[in-house]
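Write out the 3D structure for:
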Amino acid sequence: MAFKGKPPGSGSGEMSRTTQALRPSIALSEAEARRARALRRQGEAPPVIAERLGLPLEEVEKALLQMRNPRPETTRGTLNVTLAAHRFVMSERQGDEPLWQTMDRLVDELIRRRAETARRNASRRGGPAADDWLPGLDAPTPERPG
């Protein structure tokens, strides 16, 4: 049984509708806000942008506060593990594959190896086949009267 995670949905990374509803309205058109944000990305200060576009400084600042900026590390790529485990996972990545695919591949390999070990141990003990149990879990041992 292969481990198959669910890839991010088509709307991942988009702003929540609730967040959009809570944001203050901006008295700028979408094109004006876009131009102000483009100038900000070029390094211009808000007062300079407002003067250059002939727009009120308060509205320009609202538009700039709502800019989406790239994060150095995306939340989906964050591993809540030790630094050593993080280095290991990053070293297992194949090319530019997403981190979730690397994790799925590693978990799949772990499950397959545990199932193989369980099958080998079951055949030595003469117990139930490993396929009768969930992959990665040991079969229950018969209770012995004590």
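Residues 99-125 form the longest helix (27 residues).
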